Amino acid sequence: MLQLRPGCECCDKDLPPDSAEARICSFEWNFCASCATNVLAGKCPNRGGEPVVRPRRSANKLANSPPSMERVHKPA
User: Fold this and answer.
1) Residue ranges of region Disordered (predicted)?
2) How far from 51 is each of 11, 41, 46, 61, CA to CA, in Å?
3) In 2, 6, 60, 69, which residue has its Cα 20 to 30 A from 28's Cα atom?
């Protein structure tokens, strides 16, 4: 199951589970759309993956499959 982390790992912007702004790479690093495009130029700085639109988890599924509470912030 994907780790839907609560914030952008670049700028720390909030990314709720239903955010259309969330991006995720194949190694599950989470970014906002702005950072993925403008700061990272479409390449994950951690392992070189491609940030793509993160799937949204519907509200009725969140009770049994909650998003991650782990907040990771690596501005560099």
Assistant:
1) 50-76
2) 15, 9, 11, 24
3) 60
